[in-house]
Amino acid sequence: MRDRQQTRSPERTGRPPLTERRKAETRLEVARAAVRLFLAKGVADTSAEEIAAEAGMSARTLWRYFPNKESCVMPLLGNGIEHLAAGLRSWRADQGVSELLGTLVSGHAEATAEMLDLVRLTRTEPGLRAVWLEAHREAEPAFAEALAERAGLAGPDLATAIQAAMINAALRVAVEHQAFAAEPPESLEAATVEALMIAARGFSG
Question: Alpha-carbon Rg of the chain, whole angstroms?
C-alpha cells in the first residue's frame, strides 16, 4: 500500500506532451480541410472520405477524432474559445475593462478569415450551426470559471455566471455580425471590442 501511494504519477504541468500537441495539430488540420471543402462543395456534397483525404489521413482515422463530418470544424472554434478563456484567467483583479479587451483581441485575428468563412456557412447549414452553438455552450462555463477565479471564489456564482453569459453572447454576435454583413463596416477585432464594451456598459436608463 505504501509503495503504491509513493509511486503515484505526479500531476502534469506546463505544456502538454508532444503526442497530445500532435493530436491537437492533426484535429486543427482536419478542421481547416473540412472548411475548405464545405466552402467549395457544400456540406451535403462533401463526404467524410473527402475530408480525410484532404487532411492526408484515412477515413478510419478521421472517425477516431470526430463523430460526424460537421463536428470536424469544432477544433477551429475551440482554439478561439481557449484563447479567450486564457485571456479571462490572466485578467488581474486590479485591471480594468480596457486591459481585458487588449488581452482578448491580441492574437485572436490569426484565424479571422477561416473563422468568418465558417460562420457564414452556419447561416445556411443547420449541422454547422449546431456545432457553432455547441462551441459557445461549452465556452460559457469556461468563462465563468475564469471570472470566478479572478474574483477569488471557489466556483462561479450568479454574478460571474451572468458576466460569462454576457461575454459569450457579445463575442458570438460580434462574429456573426461581421460574417453576415454584406459590407462589414469594420474589422473583426474592432467589432469584438465594440461588442464587449456594449456588454460591459450593460443597460442604460
Answer: 19
Residues 22, 18: Cα–Cα separation, whole Å = 6
- For residue 193, the tally of other CB atoms under 10 A from its CB is 18
Looking at the chain, the domain(s) classified CATH 1.10.357.10 span 73-201
Of 117, 133, 135, residue with least CA distance to 35: 117
More confident residue, 42 or 20: 42
Report pTM: 0.81
Region(s) of the chain under CATH 1.10.10.60:
17-71
pLDDT tens digits for range 169-205: 998 998 899 899 887 667 777 888 888 888 888 776 5
- Specify the CATH class of 17-71 in words: mainly alpha
